[in-house]
Design goal:
Layout (H helix, E strand, L loop, with lengths): L1 E3 L2 E3 L4 E5 L2 E5 L5 H6 L5 E7 L2 E7 L5 E3 L8 H14 L3 H6 L1
Antiparallel strand pairs: 1-2, 3-4, 5-6, 6-7
Length: 97
């Protein structure tokens, strides 16, 4: 269960916080929409201490490497990996568009 300013929020709800107000959206997407969503995630496969160095797509196994210039700060490395992952298209994604 999640707590908000106005009390308890159902854990299935999505809340948007704007200024001093919380809007609760209890609508769930239909099942067919969920089935059409890509089942891909970014997985870190190599770490340098607490800094991610290499990641891969769980769908197509494409590898993403953090450049040396971004390895100095963990947040820079995380951001770089996420940007590379977001830009890439899995082979099956390319066929659909």
């Amino acid at each position: 269960m999640l707590r908000c300013y106005s009390g308890v929020v159902n854990s299935c709800s999505i809340s948007c916080v704007t200024a001093n107000r919380i809007d609760i959206l209890n609508e769930r997407p239909e099942e067919p929409l969920l089935a059409n969503m890509p089942k891909r995630n970014l997985r870190v496969v190599k770490w340098l201490s607490s800094t991610p160095a290499i990641g891969e797509c769980t769908c197509c196994s494409k590898e993403f490497k953090v450049p040396m210039t971004s390895l100095g700060k963990t947040i820079d490395a995380q951001t770089n990996l996420q940007e590379q992952f977001d830009r890439h298209k899995c082979p099956e994604d390319a066929n659909e568009s």
